[in-house]
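User: Structure tokens for this complex, please. No commentary.
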Amino acid sequence: MSLDTATLPTRPSAWNDPRVRGIVVQVVVLAAVVAFGIHIVDNTATNLAKQKIASGFGFLSNTAGFDISMHLIPYTPESTYGRAFVVGLVNTLLVAAIGVVLATVVGFVMGVARLSPNFIISRLAGVYIEIVRNVPLLLQLFFWYFATLAAMPHPKQSHDLGAGFFLNVRGLYMPSPVPGERFGLVIVAFIVGIVATFVVKRWARRRFEATGQPFPMVWAGFGLILGLPIVVLLATGVPLSFELPELKGFNFTGGTVLPPEFAALLAGLSVYTAAFIAENVRSGIQAVSHGQTEAAFALGLRRGATLRLIVIPQALRVIIPPLTSQYLNLTKNSSLAVAIGYPDLVSVFAGTVLNQTGQAVEVILITMAIYLTISLLISLGMNLYNRRVRLVER
Amino acid sequence: MSDATATVRTERHPDLPPPATTVGVLGWLRTNLFSSWLNTALTLLGLYLLWLIVPPLLDWAVFSATITGEDRTACEPNPGACWVFIKVQFWQFIYGFYPPDQTWRVNLTFLLFVAGVAPVLIERIPGKKWALFYLLFAFPVIAYVLFVGGVFGLPLVETALWGGLSLTLVVSIIGIVASLPLGILLALGRRSKMPILRMLSVVFIEAWRGVPLISVLFMASVMLPLFLPEGVNFDKLLRALIGVALFSAAYMAEVVRGGLQAVPRGQYEAAAALGLSYWKTMGLIVLPQALKIVIPGIVNTFIGLFKDTTLVAIIGLFDLLGRVHTATTNAAWLGMSTEGYVFAGAVFWVFCFGMSRYSIRLERKLGAGQRRR
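Assistant:
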């Protein structure tokens, strides 16, 4: 007996076939996006041609002709726009890198303080977190720069902080180190210390796994990385002197100055981001089940060891993904520098360079590409770290 | 061993009160503040910090402050805060340069907005669906007519006159309302089975999330005019709004995606078993559940956007912070920046803190079934 063909499912008509429909929809959407893109590019080209602006990246090798108040690499008004771009990028990376470190330290301290059994400490931390998190960063930057730092005295009446540190309206003046002849040895000792720490760490780990004997790795690390260079420094007769800032006339000369824009931006970024990190740390620690702590106490571990060996490694798994996005936020927020005049990438490149050259498309595209790259690199790095600390499932 | 007596108690000894050091104020102090040496030291440090901060702050803000008067000469004898500055500029901080006899239009718009938002956000008020439709379709038109004017006998108010807190609210509310539909589409695209749609959505979302808002605003103000055909031009506020909406749509997409992932697979499968099409599955089954889950996330995105709207001050729009900042640079009121920023900070704080409390409460309520403790 043959099957009745009428009861067999027939192929759906082409319009009702999900596969065909999927392809049609995608082709239509792609065509629309491409058409939109072509339309925009066409418009832009017409507009640029009408305004007689040459497109292309040739302007990067033209002379910039403006000065930048803070540059870590050599820069003069005769340098090129390309150089100005690099100066801005370096300034952005500098403030972001220091800000990330400061915000992490303050954030962890505040997050732990928030969970402190001490009523006053936990409330103080709570007030800090709730105030800082709920006020816009730009407002805080304005506050640091225009209200706090602008209220500093003039150079003649600077606050003398001792040890060659002076604080006034032009910034924080510090002694600058002048390395002597044999200072290179100290740097060599520092590098040797770092390498030795890694070697000792591997040895300590192997011994711990073989015999169960613990090794005070933290102190050994401190001794090797900090102690060794100090010993070499003393042994070579301290080949390091300091150039102190001095008041000459109306201003200080010598020493290193931390510009007020940099200080305000750094303070604002770290204080703001630290409040968010503190909340991440708090929730991470709270996410570790209390049974873990009790089990550790039952095994006879002390409070410090419980925190270090049981709670923190588990809390880190929860903390790290949001921490990554906080680092990304800090880096992106450093672009607010433009509001208080710190010469970062946006301020120098998307601000001054764009205004001088009128190359809006190229400048904005480069700026966005740079931020995208930084963002991707940070999340890549943190993902690698996350992979190391995450739960190993068998 | 003669007269040794044994005491035998025949009735139960009455319960003794707990030791005085473990209950009451004393007990609380012992467990919370002085339980160990370290804790005692921390308590003293905390008290010292409070003593350093609180009395001078109160003195500046309240006891030595000036409230009465019309200009800065009233403040000169007092060392504390000069709140006269805020009092004199107050209406400008709220409405910018919106004509004073027309500000009822701004007030009415925000009243209408609150009337639409309340049913969506507060569980007890019925009519969520209608309120959502009203907010997404009717309200924008009404708000546009009221704010801009030029029809129905309302005088035209140019966007250049808008400012202050009302501009902050306009930018953030339009940003969030416009970004919601776009964010939903992007989130659906990112979870779609069609590779090209998925790729386009991922690229769009990640590109916007990877760049700072300030560069987006720069792009909107300098690059957008170049994109438009000849003769078409947008005003500055609209350009900023486009930038803000696209930017927050990318964040909104990620929030909505979280909600879509939280809807159990069985719901999708049940919808498919009933023979519902993709759009019916999404519109009738998945999105209503997903959007309910992500309301706290949307509120958090809104808080972020609300704070970020201050950045429009950098491209020359005068929101609350921009107005305050301009006022502090006014020659008649130099040196009042602390008062100005404290005022603006307090306003932002009240809004953001209130919304974050709301979102936490809602999160607790929605997560009541899965809470650990």
